[in-house]
Amino acid sequence: REGFDVEKFTVQMRVQKLGWRTGEWSIDIPIDLTEINKLTKKVPLDDQTFDYEGVTVTLQETQYAPSVNELIYKTSLTDELRADYVAQREEQTKLYGEQHRQLSTKIGYYIENDSGNIIASNNVFTSERGHPVSNGYIQSGSRWNEEVPGEEFWMDSFIPQKDENLLSFVLDGVFKTIP
Fold this sequence. Notes:
13% of the residues lie in helices and 54% in strands. By secondary structure, it is mainly beta. The protein starts with 7 loop residues before the first strand and ends with a strand. The model has no long low-confidence stretch (mean pLDDT 82).
């Protein structure tokens, strides 16, 4: 989340082609989030951590705002799987030369209310798993930790839900790209 806690900034747009017309257009849009930030509730999840099939998931924070709800978390390989990955990668480098494929970890999950109804999901599994692939989902952003193979920081955005008090996170599965 470093760098995202900014209250005032400017979005700069530069356009060189619009439809069939070429030219030079620019617009600066000032953004002031001071008032909306007052309505945003941040709930620390105390780095709740669990392992599943070689992937460690750390839930860090959830944010509730009038425009979007966000879940902020980290995924990483367990130490054992990371060591195995590094060894495999070294062996492949000896055989095939340097490879630049990034190791990735991702989770599929859904969020349900106290009645057991799914109110949001972020899942790359197929809908045959018993719930929608994405429900109330807007977007996901991530960045790799360049110093720790297989560690990735995530921020998933969902459509805000009204009058939902008790919500549960349900892990549906993990994905990992390994050699």
